Known about the structure:
The chain has about 250 residues and is of the alpha/beta class. It contains seven helices and seven strands.
Amino acid sequence: MSKNKVVIITGAGSGMGYATAKRFVKDGFKVVLNGRNENKLKKAAAEIGSENCLVVPGDVSIEKDIEHLINLTIQTYDRLDVLVNNAGIFIGGGIENLSLADWNKQFAVNSTGPFLTIKKALPYLEKTKGNIVNVSSVSGIGGDWGALGYDASKGALNLLTKALALDFAPKGIRINAIAPSLTDTDMGAGAINDKEMMAEFKKRIAMGRAGKSEEIADVIAFLASEESSFITGTILPVDGGLSASNGQPKL
Ligand SMILES: NC(=O)c1ccc[n+]([C@@H]2O[C@H](COP(=O)([O-])OP(=O)(O)OC[C@H]3O[C@@H](n4cnc5c(N)ncnc54)[C@H](O)[C@@H]3O)[C@@H](O)[C@H]2O)c1
């Protein structure tokens, strides 16, 4: 049990963020739930145990929202042990039809958001020798057809993770990322209505299924725990074996 430890989770109202909040409450943390929709966050907190949760609505791409998130966390709990940068958006499209606004929007949430939260959280994480887990994607390691904006924004998050891990290892702060493939959330498997497309995904994932949010939460909890005390700067695939393939088709 990690009694009295404090974690901030962005995008905690649904999907992996919700499952991660639930897991950290179970582990004895005080959990700060961030996201844009206050009602959704309050509902999530009520489901997983409001007495252990603090709801702080806000947009991760807006600096003053992040200042408020960190300040209220410290005012309420007087410490911060773990930051989970989970909030993310996906906007597909090739270069011909992806607008500059949509390119910028994905970078604002997927890369600048973590930059801002980390910048404001680091002074407090230094005090607790805490750590950071960024939720990236296999799409930040290799490219997808027709999703260059998402891929580039997650690729930026991966190198943000590695570069910061180097800078902050001497201060005892670990910074890692996970790289899920298709997961059972609204953004992932829930967004695919087409049976054929789902079958194509399953062909590429060695284990033949989408990941479960709880399986992602378990890995985040591991990277945030003392069990992973010698791991920093890693981008850990949580993808049912998708990245074990070199990309050649099954013969
Ligand atoms: N589902 C998948 O297949 C999959 C695969 C790889 C990576 N990911 C990544 O996992 C993370 C979680 O996504 P999910 O699958 O649980 O989907 P989701 O849509 O359920 O969760 C994303 C959450 O982020 C929140 N969010 C979006 N923009 C925000 C902003 N500006 N400020 C604050 N919160 C914001 C949303 O409200 C939502 O609650 C994302 O970073 C996503 O890119 C998802």
